[in-house]
Amino acid sequence: MKFIQGLQKLNFPQEEIDRLKPLMDSYINELVLFNSAYNLVNTNDRDEIIVRHILDSLAAARHIKALTDERDATIADIGSGGGLPGIPLAAALPQYNFVLVERMSKRCAFLENAAAILGLRNVQVKNLELEKTPAASFDIATFRAFRPLDNKMLKSLLAVIKPGGFLAAYKARREKILEEMGSLGYAEQDYKTIPLTVPFLTDTNSGDDRERNLVVISK
Fold this sequence. Notes:
The chain is α/β, with parallel strands linked by helices. Helix content is 42%, strand content 21%.
């Protein structure tokens, strides 16, 4: 129920919710099945996976979609790991091509299997380190894995994006974003911070809603 309620809170149309639910149910089954072997996510609790990983990934879907109107745009999930945010986004945005870039071959095997089980024909898996990924390959690159960004990583990320493309980074508190981006030489007007509302995601200690943001840097 949390998945359905969560997508309703994110204003997904009911037909999209009906389409996505069996896909994400299958995906969660695969995550739980292979988690202990591949260390894909930090929990086996299905509700936690739904909130902290699936809904968190999908909270940015409409914002990522707004970055490009090209139906054949290529979106990369860098350091994809267990496929987050790439697999939920690929399921929600079938009009785009997704490339899951992951350096660990065993996780790539999981990603290929998961994409096949879900029937995601718009997904490719690349067993590559970021630094060895061909330059200017993607219209948009997104990630949840790197915290915090440093100059070397940012340079490598921007290198794989086409001119006119975007880097879309899932981040937490705005205060930390200002500090992190400032250390990279970015003034606040040089990038966009988009607040994300992740249904049911609360701070463990206070019980308050946990702050999430999408940081968008244009190339």
